[in-house]
Structures are given as structure tokens and as C-alpha cells.
Amino acid sequence: MPTRTLLLGRRDRLLSGDWSSRAPALAALLARGTHVAAAISDEPALAAVVDIPGMTDGFPAAALTRAFDVGDAEGASWLRADPAFVRADAACARLLAVGDFGVGKSDAEAALALLAPLFRDEGLALDAPQPQRWYLRLPPGTELPRFPHPQTVLGDDLSRHLPRGADERRWMRLLNEAQVLLHHAEFNRGRAALGLVPINSLWFWGAGVTPSRIVVRGTRIATDDPVLLGALRLAGRSEVDYAAAAPAGPGDSVVDLRRLDDAAVLDRDWLAADLSALKAGRLNLISVRFADGSGAQVDRWQAWCVWRRRPD
């Protein structure tokens, strides 16, 4: 009998205010299910879905998105070098935007014309197959820097998230030199005229070698996440559209709902129907996972329990 895994957004956003009255199905799943602890991973939301045997250097998000964007990820090490906006105040500098903040193709091309020589002198190839996703291809044997995922840094003091691990001084120097070049960039004046914030920094993250083997759990995967889409491509799998992700379909299914921040909409459009399918015996298990990997697993027996426990 099929199982269902639902990838949800941040727990603190979904479970805020009077959320349980607006999302009774989510409240029931969390109250009746077996608790699942947060995952220790660079991509904790995907820990229940993606397995990379032998992974030791962190989750290779850059290699996976490269596989989706271009299809040339195999046999190389990759690092995301995404466009970013940093604002400095009297106390610190904060990362306020990364990736998709109105970065168009012309902006990306102008920025790369400035930055590519800087990285080329270091033996690194910079390109931007998508305006919001920029990449560095690293020479074989390069020690991989460890920068945190941008979602964990946004709004925070950058000094708390400096590069760590391999050759960290080199990467800090490259970041500083890129910021100087971008500060004087002519294209940023055009962005300002349009009311857009400047591209005044980069954010390195997701370093890793393209995995030789990857396992994606679930027969049907509905997602719009480039990381998961890249994992599917490398695993020789394909995604399904959201309309085809109904719980009554064949095989185990995974539905990526991290884009939804409204618990009431999540409940109305997805969770209520899934809980009904579980009670009716069309599903054997539902697993709900928040962005940090925590959540609950609910089987058919638990779905009918009348007792409740408070969601953690």
C-alpha cells in the first residue's frame, strides 16, 4: 500500500498564531503521529527523500542544481556563487537577498564580465546558466569550502557565517575582491534607476563533487526545487506535475510543498485530502517533514486515534 511524504516549509512560519484551528488536518497529523527529529544535514528538508551513499563533505547542492540547469555536472566539483545583496549598518553587514531578487540576464552577463577574470586567475571557471544561479567549476582535487546555506544566513550578521574549513582565507579574499568590483559596477546604477537593490556581493555555498550514485525515494515526485530536480536527473528519474500527485495514484509519492507558507492553504489543498485517504485505507503512511527535517509519521491506526498530544 502506498506511502506519502510531504515536504513542508519552515515550522516557525507554518505553526504561528492560531494555526491549529486554520489547519486541522496538519494539527491531527502532528498530534497523532510518531515524532521525527530534525535532520543534521545541509539540506535537512531532503534528508527523507535523497540519499547519497558515501557522502562525507556536505550535501553537493551546487552539483545537483548544475545537473538540472545544464546537464554537465558529472565528473567535476561545483560551488554555487550566487548574486547577493548585502547591507552594512553601524553594527554589522547583513545578507538580505540571494539569488532571485530581480536579477535579469543582462545583469548576470554584466556581472560575469567583471568577475570572471578574477576567478579565472585562480583557476576557477564562473558562469551563470540561470540569472539567479551562478556557478564556479573547481579544478580536480580542490579542497571544498564550507559556507552555510543562504536560507540560514539571510538577515543575519555575516561575521557569524564566515567561510570555514579548506583554504578559508582564500575564499574570504575572493569574496572581498568580488564585492569591490561589484560596488563600482555600472550596471548597478541601472538597477537603482529601476528601484532594484544592487548586486553587491556573492554567496558561496553548496560545494561538492557530483555524486557517482544517488538514490531518490518515492515512485512519484512532485517538486519545483532545482536541487531535488537535479537529484532526480542524476538518478535517472523524472518528476511529475503537481496535478498528477494525487494520493490515490500508484506507488509511494513525495510532494514538495515548501513554497506554501500559509497553513490554511496547505491544509485545504493537500493535507485534508491526504488524511482522508489515509483513514480510508488508500494510503498506508503519511510523513510530514518541515524545512529542518523534523515532523511526524502517521500510519492508518494512528490516523483514527481520538487522543491527542501537543505538537512539539
Report on the structure:
The protein is an alpha+beta fold. The protein has two domains: 140 residues, no CATH class; 149 residues, no CATH class. It contains eleven helices and 15 strands. The protein has a six-stranded mixed beta sheet. Strands 4, 5, 6, 7 and 10 form a five-stranded antiparallel beta sheet that branches. Strand 4 and strand 5 form a beta hairpin. Helix 3 packs across helix 10. The radius of gyration is 21 Å and the shape is globular. The mean pLDDT is 90.
Summed up, what is this model?
This protein has 312 residues and is α+β, with helices and mostly antiparallel strands.
Head-to-tail CA distance between termini: 28 Å
Strands across the major sheet, in which order? 2-15-14-1-13-12
Oligomer: single chain
State mean pLDDT (0 to 100 scale).
90
Topology overview:
Layout: E1 3-7, H1 11-14, H2 19-22, H3 24-32, E2 34-36, E3 50-51, H4 61-69, E4 77-88, E5 93-98, H5 105-120, E6 125-130, E7 133-138, E8 145-146, H6 150-153, E9 164-165, H7 168-183, H8 187-193, E10 201-209, E11 215-216, E12 220-222, H9 226-234, E13 253-256, H10 263-279, E14 285-289, E15 295-299, H11 300-303
Task: Give a quick set of tags describing it.
single chain; 312 residues; alpha+beta; 2 domains; six-stranded mixed β-sheet; five-stranded antiparallel β-sheet; 15 strands; 32% helix
